[in-house]
Design brief:
A hairpin with a 5-residue loop joins strand 8 and strand 9. The two termini are 29 Å apart. This protein has 2 domains: 97 residues, Alpha-Beta Plaits, CATH 3.30.70; 106 residues, 2-Layer Sandwich (Alpha-Beta Plaits). The radius of gyration is 19 Å and the shape is elongated. It has 5 helices and 9 strands; from the N terminus they run βαββαββααββαββ.
Length: 228
């Protein structure tokens, strides 16, 4: 149940995976689903003192609809001391299909006002699916390199590519998938779904490419994985 007022609080960081059909759940619906899960699990979450008494939770940058994620992070303040293992046990029984509790940690070291302010980049994998010819894979890599470049897109493409053009920092090509490091600041999300739609349309791919978000990074002063 929600708790208000001044009392001792216990910060917890929960890492979810959102896959399958759950990748089509929008950010606001995802927030509502989480709150229902927390309350059904019996977690006593601190609330604000305003008229709405909002639960004191903070989430990592939104994942676009249609993109899977293995790193949906939520920071919440509990009014009761619980071991992370107990929080995970309680939550796991209330996860719908497509939602998994990857990890729960004590978040006492994070800045409480905005624990995700350090996020400057994210890592995604891109899978093209079966039956894609090697020549198409090379075309995809060339297209990603073009998106990565500072060259502006054609005027006819601006509406489609403005949400992802020029935000790719690094491309890593593996045997079965491609990994990307992209700029992802709070309030300025790399729109992987629009990037996938652009690749499918312009390269006439046989399948819609699938992006999955893996991790968050801080770029300065050195590239560092966050929330490991």
């Amino acid at each position: 149940m929600p708790i208000t007022g001044q009392q001792m609080t216990y910060p917890i960081l929960v890492r979810f995976a959102k896959t399958g059909l759950m990748r089509f759940v929008g950010h606001l619906d995802w927030l509502g689903l989480q709150q229902a899960m927390f309350l059904r699990a019996g977690l006593r979450i601190v609330t604000g003192e305003g008229p709405t008494h909002r639960l004191k939770i903070k989430t990592s940058p939104p994942t676009p609809v249609g993109v899977a994620s293995l790193t949906e992070l939520t920071y919440l303040l509990l009014s009761q001391p619980l071991y992370p293992e107990e929080v995970k046990r309680r939550l796991s029984g209330h996860c719908p299909e497509g939602i998994e509790i990857v990890a729960v940690k004590d978040a006492g070291r994070l800045a409480r006002k905005n624990p995700f302010a350090a996020v400057e980049a994210a890592k995604y994998t891109l899978e093209l699916g079966d039956g894609v010819a090697d020549s198409k894979v090379l075309e995809v890599i060339a297209a990603l390199e073009r998106i990565r470049s500072d060259d502006p897109p054609d005027a006819s493409e601006v509406e489609d590519v403005g949400a992802f053009w020029g935000r790719i920092i690094e491309i890593e090509q593996g045997e079965t998938q491609t990994a990307l490091i992209v700029r992802q600041l709070e309030g300025n999300t790399f729109h992987a779904a629009k990037c996938a739609a652009f690749l499918e349309k312009t390269l006439e791919l046989p399948h819609y490419p699938m992006f999955t978000k893996l991790d968050y990074y801080r770029l300065t002063p050195s590239r560092r994985r966050l929330f490991a």
